[in-house]
Amino acid sequence: YQRRVRGLTDFDMATPTLELHQDASVSSGATTGNALLLRLIGVLVCLALALYWLFKRWKARRRAIRRKLVPQRQHLGIPPQIPGEGAPVFHGVRVLELSTYAAAPSAARCMGDLGAEVIKVEDPSGDPFRYTLLEYEEGREFSSMFETCNLSKFSIQLDLKQETDLEKLRKLLRDCDVMITNMRGPALARIGCTYQDLKQEFPHLIYAQVSAWGREGPDCNLAGFDVGAFWTGTGLSASIMRAPLYHLYPAGFGDVSTGQSLLGGIALGLRRRIMTGRGCLVDASLLRAGMWCVSPEIVAAEHEYHQAPNYDLPRRRDPFYNNFRTRDGQHLYVLGLGSESLVTRALARLCGAVEDDPGLYDKVVTWASLTSWETATTLLDAANVPYCRLRTLEEVLDRPSSENFHSGSLLGINDLDWLPAVPFSLSCSTGHAPQSRAPGKGEHTESILASGWSVLPPQAELPRAETTEGGGMEGGVLDGVKVLEWSGTDSSVGGAGRMLVELGAHVNELDPRGTRCRDSNPQLAAQLEAGKRRVMLPADAMESKQVVRELLEWADVFMTNLGRRELEDWGLDPCLLYTSDAADEEDSVDLGGRRIIKK
């Protein structure tokens, strides 16, 4: 600012020599007065800005006081529980997290919600995600985005460039079960914390690492957030967006998807640890998770999926892949993949058309535009036509479900009404929920370094080997596990079954009609069915139910995406899946020699 003032002053003083018609009576005293006036204005502007900044700080502090943010719990230890007696599924598992941002922390947060003791290690500057978009959230110590990925954790602060703090880290690793990190290879090598560095000293340790581009190859040490490796690096962006909109992307979408992949790998590593006492490396990457997500398009028969979409082409005139606007402005999306003929027949009846009418799409558009949402959905329900409504994020939060969200106020987070829940539920415990809000930076350093991990009952301690030699598992980590899959036309359960096959499980796939996506996408069907044994059910309904019962008796795992009504028709009500040898005859049913409680 002073340089600008000096520049203006020089300009004012030089002006009389440059202007041909400048009044010669202008004195140097007037020029000096103008300069002083400019200086005074500058001082007043700076003072006003300073007062405004102080007012904003005071206002933010007042807001924080009014919110009465409840401090994070003290590290007094996780209350000991006996596994299998209502304890959370990961109770007794000790997790040390050396990670930042969202992918790896989201997996650790899920483990904390499911009962694990999670200690987050941060350097003196803290996780950078703490400050992401914090300027838009007055009165917060850290951002709500950080909060969501770091519930149910403790935090300690260590400077891993110092040998003394490295020794403190290794002391925690001695009794740790799972280490989660997203640090890049060179950084881990500098502090001696790569998997190769630690596996001999801590053979029991499950080492879970997330990278952007994978642990091998020319790009393995490159940085790459999910918008890079997951979104643009896999072709997802080019398959959906058009130039110059390739960068538009839901924040953290690839991170949390990769975090779920990492969580599944950790669970498999824990199975190996329980069976052998030994840990293993769990390797996940944004690129690999993204490639799995885009795999249906990669294996598609038509290669236009690999090209940028042409949004200028006429809309596809197919009632299955379009949305329809109702009279009151709602957007209706008709579903029905795999049941096209049934849905087409139902839509034709609603519109007063015939099934093979070439103008069916236009008639559905007209019918929807003349029908209210309530009437349309009532008619679709009666015709057994699946559908959904286009919803905004605001509408989702207006009607939150306790199954999908947790109340922030229960954790003392009074400025966040709802927090996303772990994306699955387990019936073995009612304790699967966030245990606390996200911790402050290094909040528990002193207490954890003094007392270490929580004391566990012997039943909750995982077996641990003292050496990496001998006693390993032959075959896949799920070798010997028997799975019965009934996935209809959907690829989600089919994809999970394919993963289980690759991990050594024996998967029997029920296929009553023998048509699951083979006609519409045979390449995808071939990918999902590889390594599975298809079981065709008899035409007779009673015989089919008997075959299903026998397969249930054989299986360790039953996976399905069938609706509750269809499961009940087959006698597979999920409420009948709890067994007891001492079940009363009136309250149970005999299923293949096994007594199933009806509750």
Which geometry do the CA atoms define? Answer: globular
* Mean pLDDT across residues: 80
N-to-C span: 77 Å
Q: Report strand %.
A: 5-15%
Would you write up a description of this structure?
It is a single chain. By secondary structure, the chain is of the alpha/beta class. Helices cover 38% and strands 12% of the residues. The protein contains 21 helices and 17 strands. The strands form five sheets. Strands 3-2-1-4-5-6 form a six-stranded parallel β-sheet, with helices on both faces. A four-stranded parallel β-sheet has the order 14-13-12-15, with helices on both faces. Strands 7-8-9 form a three-stranded antiparallel β-sheet. Strand 12, helix 18 and strand 13 form a beta-alpha-beta unit. Helix 1 runs antiparallel to helix 2, helix 3 packs across helix 10 and helix 10 crosses helix 11. It is globular, with a radius of gyration of 31 Å. The N terminus and C terminus are likely disordered.
Task: Annotate the secondary structure layout.
Blueprint: H1 2-18, H2 28-67, E1 94-98, H3 103-113, E2 117-122, H4 144-149, E3 154-157, H5 163-174, E4 178-181, H6 185-190, H7 195-198, E5 206-211, H8 227-232, H9 236-240, H10 253-276, E6 281-285, H11 286-293, H12 295-298, E7 323-325, E8 331-334, H13 340-351, H14 360-369, H15 373-382, E9 387-389, H16 393-398, E10 405-407, E11 418-420, H17 445-451, E12 482-486, H18 492-502, E13 506-510, H19 522-529, E14 533-535, H20 541-554, E15 557-560, H21 564-569, E16 588-591, E17 594-597
Parallel strand pairs: 1-2, 1-4, 2-3, 4-5, 5-6, 12-13, 12-15, 13-14
Antiparallel strand pairs: 7-8, 8-9, 10-11, 16-17
Helix pairs in contact: 1-2, 3-10, 10-11, 13-14
